[in-house]
Amino acid sequence: MYFAEYMKKLRKDKLLTQSEMADILGISSQAIKMIENGSIKFPSKAVLDKLSDYLDKFLVAVASAIIFGEDDHK
Question: What angle do CA 50, 52, 54 make, to 5 degrees?
Fold first, then answer.
């Protein structure tokens, strides 16, 4: 469930709506809802790429934070 928690915290920390987060990642608002409610357990490579670009972090650092529940997006 770390992906759900990570995404929800990231979105709220950045003061983004689900729709704004969806636009940043190039996915639907429904997909964001599914991520945040735990229906989607891990991001696709494309979403990971966009997250790492948005956060200006290495892809491995973002994936590690999602897998291990680390809070690295501040």
Answer: 65
Q: What is the pLDDT of residues 10-46, one digit of tens each?
A: 999 999 999 999 999 999 999 999 999 999 999 999 9
Which tokens go with 74?
Answer: 């501040």
| DSSP string covering 26-71 | TS-HHHHHHHHTTSS-S--HHHHHHHHHHHT--HHHHHHHHHHT--
pTM of the model: 0.85
With vertex at residue 23, the alpha carbon angle to CA 21 and CA 61, rounded to the nearest 5 degrees, is: 55
- In residues, how long is the chain? 74
Burial of 57 (0-12, 13-18, 19+ CB in 10 A): middle
